[in-house]
Amino acid sequence: MEAIDEVHLHDEGTASTLDTGTLAEYLRVRTGCPSVVTRGPFAIEHCSAEQLPALGERIAHLKVRDLDAPPTEHEPAYAEMEFERRRLANKDRGAFGVLYDGFGFQRVLRSLLPAADVRLNRVHVVFTNRTIGTWDENDRRYHLRAIILGMPAIVSTTGLVEAPAKPRDFYLARQQLGMAARSELTQALLKERFKGQFLDHDDERLTEVAKGYAMQAVVFQVTGEAFCEDPDCRLFNAHWQAELLRAQLGGPPEYCARHEELVATMRHQRRGA
Ligand SMILES: [Zn+2]
Q: Which stretch of DSSP H or E encloses residue 85?
């Protein structure tokens, strides 16, 4: 097993309750990795100001317009490219409504990494509030994703809230309210009624939840294994909010026996080195 030398946590600063400093400390302690560093927005670090406009254009191509249509790159409108340029320069916080093709987005970000940075013992995690999805060939539609594993790993803070499904009763209640459910007050009341049962935007528990997702990125890098079957392990691939909260907040132990051992091995490998 490859020992991890360095982890880069990129934070664009769009999630007020995400504390990447705490995440870095967590990974240092658990994995023994000597260098876990927090960085600013990925694109700003890896692109010059002159390159940002072209990058904005590439990202505008990745906008998903139809959830039921396979990945296609659309010719973006000028306003969409302008929006992406502002977004990349961190002058616009972005909207939750825009969905991007996750693998396409990952490819674009990977192309910005200097060759020396694309190494098995280096992990890059990008935290973003962009909504990302991947095309599923089986049911032929896009699905929202909380994380895209790989180089770099992308964790969507919007995806953590929106990708795993909320309790069925939540959708039922919203449906029964009909048009009224669109008002901000009703939305707030609905959330109050189901409080604690799902992760919300700017949730105080976000950093705690993100620890498990950062670890998923690290474990995937060293083992090539995605996710865990054990619903009490932080590496579990949650499809429901209840599963996400159980996997991420239900510990200790934080991981299943096999993954506790794997993480301990990583730590000891480091100490022995
Ligand atoms: Zn596990």
A: helix 78-88
Beta bridge partners of 39: 10
Whether the model clears a pTM of 0.90, i.e. scores above it, the answer is yes
Which phi and psi (to 5°) does residue 39 adopt? -130, 165
**Separation of CA 254 and ligand 1 centre (Å):** 9
Rounded to the nearest angstrom, the distance between the alpha carbon of 22 and the centre of ligand 1 is 22
pLDDT tens digit sequence for 230-243: 999 999 999 999 99
User: What is the Rg, in whole angstroms, of the alpha carbon atoms belonging to the chain?
Assistant: 19
The number of C-alpha atoms within 13 Å of 166 and in the hemisphere containing its C-beta is: 19
Q: Give yes or no for a contact between 194 and 268, defined as CB atoms under 8 angstroms apart.
A: no
The 3-state DSSP class for residue 152 equals coil
Distance CA 235, CA 253 (A): 12
CA 258 to ligand 1 centroid distance, Å? 6
CATH class of 6-272: alpha beta
Q: How far apart are CA 235 and CA 212, in angstroms?
A: 6
pLDDT at 142 over 90: yes
